[in-house]
Amino acid sequence: MGQTLIRAAKWTSAREGDRGRLEFSPQNETILNLISQMVETFNTEFPQESMVVFQSPLIWFTNLCPSDFPDVDYVKTETTVESETRGRQASAPLLQLSLTTANKYTLKVSSFEYLSYVMKLAGHNKIKETRACLEANPDPVAKILGDAFATVEKAEDKGLLRYVDMVIKEEADRKLKLMETEKEEKKSPQGNLVSAGLNSASLRLFMLLQQLDITLMKETVKQMAGQVRLTPESASKEVALLQSLCGPTKDKHALQSLWYTSEYTSNNGCRAPLWRQVHGDICYVVVKPFDDPPFCVTFTTAGVFQNKGYDITSGSVEYEKDGELYRDLTTLLKEKNLHFSETVNKKDFALNYQIPSTAVVVKFRHEESDKIKIAEKFMNEKDEENQFLLDNPDKRKKDHTSVCKEEKTPSYSQNEARVKKAKNSGKKEKTTSKKNSYQKLKNRSEDHRKISTTNELSSSSGKKGSLSVTSKISSSKTRSISSKSPFPVKEQWSSSDESSSSEDDEDAAEETWKQSNITDLPSEYWQIQKLVKYLKAGNPTATVLALCILRDYDLTQETSQLAIREVGGLDVLLNLLETNEVKCQIGALKILREIAQSPAVRKSIVELDGLKSMVSVLSDPNIQLRSLVAETIAHVARYRRAQNIVRRRGAIPYLIDLLDVPQLVLKSPESELSDYQKLCIKGAQTGALALWSLSHSKRNKKAIRTAGAVPLLGRLLKCQHQAVLIPVVGTLQECASRASYRTAIKAEGMLDDIIHHLSSENVDLQMHCAAAIYKCAEDSSVRELVGRLEGLKPLVKLISNTELRDKRELMSAVTGAIWKCAKSPGNINELKTLGGVELLVDLLHNQPEEVLIKVVGALSCCAEEATCRVTIRKAGGIGPLVTLLTRTNQSLLVNVTKAVGACAVDHEGMSIIDSLDGVRLLWSQLKSSSPEVQASAAWGLCPCIQNTKDAGEMVRSFVGGLELIVSLLKSQHKEVLSGVCAAISCIAQDEENLAVITDHGVVPVLAQLAYTNDSKLRRYLAEAICRCCAWGSNRADFGDAGVVAPLVSYLKSNKEQVRQAAICALHQLSYEPSNCVTMHATNAVPHLLRLLGSVNEVIQEAAAGCLGNIRQLAMASETS
Amino acid sequence: MATTAAKKQEAKLAKNLAHKTHFTKQEIETLMINFKKMTMSKLERTMFREILHNTFEMTDDILMDRIFRTFDADNDGIIDFGEWVTGLSIILRGTQDEKIDFCFKVYDLTGDRIITREEMFHMLKNTMVRQLAEEDPDEGIKDLVDLTLKKMDYDRDGRLSADDFKRSVQEEPLLLEAFGPCLPDDKVREAFLATFTQTKMDTSDSLGLSTL
Questions:
Q1: Beta carbons of B95 and B106 less than 8 angstroms apart
Q2: A1001-1120 carries CATH number 1.20.1260.10
Q3: Between B55, B179, B206, which is nearest A541 by CB?
Q4: How far is CA A1030 from CA A715, A1038, A1110, in A?
Q5: Cα nearest neighbour of B205 on chain A
């Protein structure tokens, strides 16, 4: 009881004289109740103990008066009552009531027996009596059992134990003595014991009192636990929990949405304005449940209640309470919303629980282009909430910027006078403010990043209509629940916002890996996590130490990277970039540079908006920093989506700036350079690396060029240092796919350097140079330039090197370059003299398709020339070429058919092809689905058919071959049509075949094609018609099909070959009288006359023949 | 007469110093004038610390004290002009080796050419923010000290000798100021240099070198 009275009961303060009273509070009421109950029943429960006389009586002012006491047992007078039983001294009755001052009775009680009588007598007033008694005797135990038993603060009281031991011993002695003297005296031991000061009964009483004490304490604790005291942390935890239960679908989610009314959090974590915090308000939350209209709820330190409402337009809350006070929001919701309580009670609710999806990449297809944007997908939110938030961005931004302002470091003034005035205080202020701002900057959680990402994206996408990007900033802020971290994190991070972010869209493979390796994490994992913790907690000195130590671990391992990411290490590292501490920035970058090589980390960095921090470092004057960050950006930019972001953040001009190194420095060897110059070179290298990564995107290529990178790149090409050259050439060759770059490269005279570098030792460099040439040589002027600059020599040298044959990329690039260059006849000669042709034939074996395409392409160009053909044949090239006809790769087939066709021009070549059944293979390519292949095959067939003995037989032997070729005339592609017409002209030279194709209906089809503007098609079409006239009624049929008129129009063509072909055709057609009539009618005669005077003999002859036939007919009709 | 003699002495001093330090004679003369403006003939501890705080923006008490002791080569409790110039030469224009040596002297709290674990702990004591959940941030500091020692102690004798320190810094230049900032930042350095040097733009001296 004593302990309770001291600790748990609430006392008012003691004023002068007065000892302080027990407050009227529910806690005290409970205590008093319990005490009075116990005392009342004490007599009956513990008769022996209740007999124990107090050492000193309990005295208090009582409400009882003598009339309350019964007559039995008590000696009553008018003003006093005394009990009959007496204590140790006869004069002291165990109970004494006496009148003291005006009408106030004092009661003196010396045993529990009488105390319980008093309780019974008091009846309704027993609480009052108890209260009065306790107020007058605050430490009753001391009075009851003596001062030795006085209540002390400390629970242990060794003195007491010793005292108790003494008492027990004494009693034992007494009993012994008593037993001895019992025979002599027959005194009641009771009397002795009662008169003795203490005995075992009193000890038992003491124990009982202690037990009562414990009971009382328990009761009060229960009471206190029943009281609610909310804190900002518990409030935010609860809100976060409920937010995760929100969603649009009624079946799956308990609530529609839930959000804070204010984004601004003050230092103590409360969101309520300060003037409301005084009232105990913590924050305000708007809840939108299913079935019910939305309402607003206030969190206070005493509990949660609904308030009068939240006004969306003005953003103000009606603070008045509108309903009951609940322990927490969940209880309130359960009471208010039926759907919520039902859903929550459902068993399968757990299965539908979704972690709020964090930053997930969503593809948008816009009307203009296939742009891919990063948007934060919060699928659970409705539009009006977005609208609401969009309406309050100013408010949010304002709050945000004001927070930022607090974090800025104060400017350091060098004013002496100021210093003299405020020496120490100034110092402290600087240290603490510097420290604070550094710490704050470092430990800003990811949500800060998310806010800026979404803000930036929303502003840029404003034109494109509402992306639901700005949705749920508030819910994104409190992403404290992360059930995605299955690993028991060793230390508890204090901030609730440090959950690992955005692992939703990571590979499933990584997920399973995580699950399976949960048990065998290496110790490094935990050490790394510990170091990240020091990163967060330390000041710049400790941070630098931790960063240096971290670098010792193998950061390319997945476990290490996972360790860093699991505890928000990426975030800290990125935040460190934004501090002003150079050493920390450098250390952080060195780590980021290592881990950014992993694809998963790259993605995370982009999603954490790390590029913003990195690009901001690009404008730092320190060149080492810029160089490091450029290298890191180079790694991160391999992630496709990062490329656009980097460009939009304006990084490209800075990167290009890094490339600006004076010529002198570039040309001097490394040993002669100063440290600073070495840094510059490194800067150029990393800048080029970054640009190379970035240049994979089309828009970036354009941006790089417009920002003026090309001249600088050109200058860098003259550099001695290979480390710089490779990314530079890499960038150039990547960008050379665009025509603007090709012209620029030519204009800047870079080809010279590129060709020079072909002879370098470094294979990668050679490869990139060759690739650059390959791309640039699309342009014929470039081809010739390459030839003039003796570019073919190193190229051929490279393919002659047998050691390099395995390197696919190198081979592919070099053969590609050779191919494109070989399109110029001048280069073919060069190639021939260098022995390139044989080498190319050699390469037909054992090379991957990528290389073969280019080799065959080169050979096909070479084979246009007679001597090369011979070389090819002699080198045994035809065989492999024919074999290649069986492949399926379209680009390869195009080249192969062309090559085979080119080789077939030679008779010997043709015979080889024939023996290998090459014509049939070639013919079957006509069935290919690709028009390019079809055209190429058709062209290739022409020389084959022309040069074969028994061509007719051969052609007829192909089953369905002729039908196939005629059917191809229905193709839409001009190139195919021209090729097929050429082939048909060859086929039609054999009479039987001509008959067959006529049967297949070649005449009307050819006639349909006549109305074409394409000169090439016209020519070959006319030739085909010319040949086809040799059979039967074809002439008449052609005429009927109306082919004459268009043919006459061909005569006006400015191409001689077209005219020649047309006139031959007309000549053939004119053997049919009706055609002559048509010709005359279409006014062909003047053209014919004109053409008579042509220099070309064939035309002359044909024109003459044609005219002759017309005249003959005319004469015949005249005579008849 | 006294003044000319004094002037001669000063000139001699300046010449000597120009040999020993990275400053030119003119620079030293300018420094001398500035020095006289600050104080008559010598710098005491409190004044020195003020200068460190205001001009060089250093805030760490322990280290500022150590820097004073290191500047004070003859250990007489005051810094005279020679010591001042020598010290400035190291922290503003020192070679990497000079700086390594300087920093080691600063960190060596007991002056016995060894940095022990306890000394490291003492310097790093206040570098961690106390986490709410933790009772004892000292554990973290001790752990960090252990890890640092493991990294930097090449001869594995459990403490850092001058050689250990030098090697560590040569391997990892960021560790130069491992136990606390005792050299001025680039910007501060430039600003101070500008007060007494010619405005000749020396590109090799520009930003980016001090953190090598």
A1: no
A2: no
A3: B179
A4: 67, 12, 18
A5: A676
Query: Do the Cβ atoms of B211 and A586 come within 8 Å?
Result: yes
CATH class of A232-349: alpha beta
Contact present, A1029 and A1069 (Cβ < 8 Å): yes
Q: Are residues B69 and B136 in the same domain?
A: no
What digits encode the pLDDT tens for the residues A496-554? 333 333 333 344 445 544 554 556 677 888 889 888 988 888 888 889 999 999 988 88
The answer to whether the CB of A105 falls within 8 A of the CB of A62 is yes
Q: Pick the residue from chain A with its C-alpha nearest to B182.
A: A541
Look up the CATH number of the domain holding residue B155: 1.10.238.10
Q: What is the arithmetic mean of pLDDT over A718-741?
A: 88
Q: How far is B8 from chain A (nearest CA, A)?
A: 32
Q: Flag if B127 and A538 touch (Cβ within 8 Å).
A: yes
Per-residue exposure over A1009-1033, b if at least 16 CB sit within 10 Å of its own CB, e if not: bbebeeebbbbbbbbbbbbbbebee
Range(s) of the domain holding residue B146: 112-179
Write out chain A residues lying below 8 Å of B174, CB-based: 544, 547-548, 583, 586-587
Question: Top-level CATH class of A599-735?
Answer: mainly alpha
Dihedral over alpha carbons A13, A18, A23, A29 (to 10 degrees): 140
Most confident segment among A17-31, A68-82, A833-847, B195-209? A833-847
User: Two tokens at A253?
Assistant: 């989610």
Residues B128 and B196 in one domain: no
Q: Bridge-partner residues for A381, per DSSP?
A: none
The number of helix segments (H) and strand segments (E) in chain A equals 62, 10
**Same structural domain, B65 and B124:** no
What angle (nearest 5°) sits at the alpha carbon of residue A198, between those of residues A194 and A200? 90
> Same domain for B89 and B118?
no
- pLDDT (tens digit, 9 = 90+) per residue, A470-504? 333 333 333 333 333 333 333 333 333 333 333 33
**Cβ-based contacts of B172 with chain A (< 8 Å):** 548, 551
The model's pLDDT over A839-849, given as tens digits with 9 standing for 90+, comes to 888 888 888 88
Of B53, B186, B203, the CB nearest to A427: B53
